[in-house]
Design goal:
With about 400 residues, the protein is α/β, with parallel strands linked by helices. Helices cover about 50% and strands about 15% of the residues.
């Protein structure tokens, strides 16, 4: 049985941590692994001793030993450097006290903490670099850092060091594997014999399978869309999420079929999205923009007939595995998506679970609307594809347990 510390540079109440991180840790626990979790919690909000105790007890019941440090945001670069130092000191002490077998770093900042801590420790646990995405390129593609600027070049040097120091790697897509570790395609090891796993963002399919036909009918009645074609989008707007193109698509869909209804589930900028839709002529009865907790996403998706995912196709997005894709398919929804993002092209083309658009013109949208189909057959097929590619237990949990076993075997 391995003892590991999972390091996550997010707060424990973040939806991503609740739906992804904790779910994967529970899968590792099912494999007999002992898990501790380190998170970084922002100041403010509904955070007090009672809240902390409740979270700690809830995680303890799931078998997770929880630790946290304060997240600092002001003066971004200095704040992040301070957090890295604080994290490395904590991890170094954790190594001395607990002698973990694995330090599991989620993305670059967390892995940097692990590498620094191990460098100054007598104990030498294995380090799993859970790369997730091309972090430096994400910041330049989003326009946060200047391309090839000082910060970007510094981040790339750090990344190179982490790739050298780590003992195993997780990436989200086959495209990312081809870029970073093409030699691992056949046997699952890089040129230095270190294990590499491709683990896309998975979901607990049981959450979606519990939503049945009666749930769909009830939610559609509740939303007032019983006789309408419902398109859904889940996620953020702005940045590399193509707000204008999504609204243009919805405009085309409603022009083609006036009975179309737009359902948008987003955690941020709800008022902005509503205003943009109204500016484009959408009436109040034509859309709903709602912020719902992750636990309620399945019942809302059950009301839809098809889903969209438009993301800027840039270099960094080759490593992206949007959770929404797994959620859509688990809900039986065919997907309209643009090309050039992660493995979505291959997924849709190989499995016939939607339509890919070449551009964002009205003609491209009309072609996609014509290409997608609905009904029980496509719903069952989408769910089967989700089971094969994104099931939390059979895909995500299985592959994480496999790479842990490889790391410990080599210890």
């Amino acid at each position: 049985m391995a003892h590991s510390l999972y390091i996550c540079y997010f707060g424990v109440r973040e939806p991503l941590v609740q739906t992804q991180v904790i779910s994967y840790l529970c899968e590792l626990i099912k494999g007999g692994h002992k898990i501790a979790l380190l998170t970084f919690e922002p100041a403010g909000g509904k955070w007090d001793k009672q809240t902390e105790t409740a979270i700690r007890e809830e995680l303890k019941e799931q078998g997770i030993e929880w630790h946290w440090l304060r997240y600092h945001k002001r003066f971004s670069i200095v704040a992040t450097a301070w957090d890295i130092l604080s994290g490395a000191v904590f991890i170094n002490r954790f190594i001395r006290r607990k002698s973990p077998d694995v330090l599991h770093g989620r993305v670059h900042v967390s892995t940097l903490m692990a590498v620094v801590a191990r460098r100054f420790s007598r104990g030498k646990p294995k380090i799993l670099f859970d790369i997730r995405g091309f972090f430096p390129e994400e910041y330049t593609d989003a326009g946060i850092w200047p391309a090839n600027g000082f910060i970007y070049r510094a981040a790339k040097r750090v990344e190179k060091w982490l790739l050298k120091e780590a003992d195993g790697f997780v990436v989200l897509t086959e495209r990312a594997r081809e870029i970073l570790f093409p030699e691992s395609r056949e046997e699952g090891f890089d040129k230095n014999g270190r294990p590499v796993e491709v683990i896309p963002c998975c979901v607990d399919l049981a959450r979606f399978q519990s939503v049945n036909g009666s749930t769909r009918a009830e939610m559609r009645r509740k939303l007032g869309v019983s006789n309408r074609k419902v398109f859904v989008y889940v996620g953020s707007f702005g940045g590399w999420y193509l707000t204008d193109d999504m609204i243009n698509f919805f405009s085309t869909a409603i022009k083609k079929n006036p009975a179309t209804f737009v359902l948008i589930l987003t955690q941020r900028n709800k008022e902005m999205v509503e205003a943009r839709l109204k500016d484009r002529g959408f009436g109040n009865s034509d859309f709903l923009v709602e912020s719902v907790p992750p636990s309620n996403i399945p019942e809302y998706l059950a009301a839809a007939d098809a889903a969209i995912s438009f993301i800027k196709a840039c270099y960094s997005k080759q490593s992206s595995s949007p959770t929404k894709i797994a959620e859509y398919l688990a809900s039986g929804l065919p997907i309209i998506a643009n090309k050039g993002v992660g493995d979505i092209d291959l997924l849709i083309e190989m499995n016939s679970v939607g339509a890919l658009i070449n551009g964002f013109s009205e003609g491209d949208f009309l072609d996609a609307l014509k290409a997608i189909s609905g009904g029980p057959d496509i719903q069952d097929h989408c769910r089967q594809v989700a089971l094969q590619n994104f099931d939390l237990g059979q895909v995500g949990g299985h592959r994480y347990r496999a790479i842990y076993d490889r790391l410990i075997k080599d210890a």
